[in-house]
Write a structure and sequence with these properties.
2 domains; OB fold (Dihydrolipoamide Acetyltransferase, E2P); 7 helices; elongated; 50% helix; transmembrane helix; 19% strand; three-stranded antiparallel sheet; alpha+beta; 10 strands; transmembrane; five-stranded antiparallel sheet; 292 residues
Amino acid sequence: MLLHRPFPLDAPSRQAFRYTFYAALCVFLILFLLQPFGINELSLSARILQASLYALVTFVLATLNTFMLPWLLPAVYREEKWTVGKELVHMCWQLVVIAFGNWLLNHWLSGTTLSWYMLIRFLWWTLIVGIFTLWLNILLKQQRLLKKYKAGASQLDKQLHQAESPAPVLLNQQENIVFTSENGKEQFMVAPGDIRYITSADNYVQIHFLKENEPATYLLRSTLRKVEEMLAPFPQFFRCHRAFIVNLSAVAHVSGNAQGYKLHLKDGAEPVPVSRNLNSKLSEQTLLLSMG
């Protein structure tokens, strides 16, 4: 179903200010050009002022929503669970909040009493103007990213398959890796070819590996950054996400959807996500392995 398709959840960042600015600019242009709510009866300078105030309210409320909602509702705003439908609901909520804020602004500017009728008018105008544009933008973005990441996943698959029989010297497959805890009192030794992936777990890292061809885990008090440094001599290990290091030689295939790439391991474990800002580095790393 279309509404259940994966969709990227953009983390709050400086780029979010650009999107909220564009939303405010659209509000300014719509009010200045279409002149609803009696704005057409004002002088040119007054129209510009009022349109600017409505745009400012839009910018402030949209920015607060963008940054505060993921912080207030972390269980809801999780990228692995984000879909086209959730993105649409989120954007509709943005429109409702903006309409409510502009309704209060209209009351302040005009001095009229607050009325449900005027609130409904603001909601109607905001939804009519925004909902079609938002829905079209979400659909086009989902299709564009899906096509992009599917094509990229196919290319990564080719590079990984070329690296299925890598040079042993390059990949150091014969040398055991010794992981040491932060206090230096604990050590864990494992062959690099047996490691599947490593993930962070609070103040620990969880090493997922094969023991006698069966999946096993080992919990070590350390950080993912320190483990990444330990694995630096082994180019088959790649920090693909803020919480994951993966053994690329254990990847069976790569899939792609609108959220980006997923690395599927040979032993059928849960797919490992790839951060979108690391896509180019992943391509470089798999290309290096294929040339090994």
